[in-house]
Amino acid sequence: MTSLPLRLAEARAPRYTSYPTALHFHDGVEGALYRQWLAELPAEMPLSLYLHVPFCRQLCWYCGCHMTVANGYKRVAAYVALLRREIALLGEALGGKRPVSGIHWGGGTPSILSGADFMAVMDDLRQVFDLLPGAEVAIEIDPRHLDREKAEALAAAGVNRASLGVQDVNPHVQEAINRVQPFAVTRQTAGLLRAAGIKALNFDLMYGLPHQGLDDVKQTAALAADLQPDRVSVFGYAHVPWMKKHQKMIDTAALPGAEQRLTQAELAERILTLKGYRAVGLDHFALPGDPLFQAAAEGRLRRNFQGYTTDPAEALLGLGVSSIGSLPQGYAQNEKDLLAYSKALREGRLPVCRGIAVTAEDRLRRKVIERLMCDFAVDLAAIAKDQGLPGFDFSEDLARLDPFIEDGLVQRSGLRLQVTPAGKQALRLIAACFDAYLGESTRYSQAV
User: Fold this and answer.
1) Do the Cβ atoms of 37 and 90 come closer than 8 Å?
2) How many CA atoms lie within 13 A of 365 on its CB side?
3) Of the candidates 256, 303, 237, which has an alpha carbon nearest to the alpha carbon of residue 446?
4) Mean pLDDT of 116-126
């Protein structure tokens, strides 16, 4: 039985992969302003790149990503041409070859690209950007559609980390989410990647899925750990059918309740810990030798749209439909509609359509929220001073935090805060106390 009050388990809050969150983006940020922001970046500032591929071969009913079913490779090939055009436009806007510390391919299923097309895009990136030594090149993979040839092509293109979607290993859960993936397939894919030279592997697991019980979570975590991926993510299923219409295919009555979800999350953590993994942040786990765990131990852990990361870059550029960039000046999101994205690129425009400029207070609050999400602790006075706002008044935020202190979920000493072990699962709600934009909204996912 968890010690977290049930009322909190049922509450909703942002995931805080950005601040302000995407819910507050507006159309006042477009291509011309984004181009100005890019030109203002110091030439020596390392960048991080995110490339979004919105295609999958099949629709998984739990999916919350921006994607569509490809229905053949012709649409994918056309999209590759658009990505390459966007890379060229970015190069023009930046005005010089900028250093890059990391590249992340997400989706959708970015491994849906042919080996030749993937290599062509990576070659274009190397023409426009200076990929730094030791830079991480990561890609998300659907294990059901990877063979030896594709694994070797990815490795030849420079990929050195792969994330495998696993979710749950049990057939009755897989059928309920329309993603049948025998565990033997996952095992085989991990072997193919390692044989090709891609040694760093992440597994993505989920709890809170339809018809998923404690035995299912236990078996999934145990089998996943037995394959020894460097990192394991354990996400709670976010049931938001008002935003993702295909989630209506999931039987709501079959979803675990709030208390069950809490127990599932705690069980997955217990199993992974017994298997030698160490908790990193809210929902990530890593082997002790992995850079993610080391960054967490040394206070260097970061958080961005891909979740927890070791990437130190202060600017992340998003490429592809719907992708979001994070710059010191603010956030910029590309067109979500593929036709609008294509039209902008054909006209020689960067396809940004919305975003938000950040203020000095936004930067302060972003740093406070990031440190809470990464370290479970924060020194408000030290961060305010570091952000150039010494003496910032946190009184309203701290008043919102009082109930968490009373419940024993947070300890406070002056302006120093420490989340207790009992408060871990309430971390997003605790961070929300410092969100000046947050209103009463049911559009966020369940906090646990």
Assistant:
1) no
2) 24
3) 237
4) 98
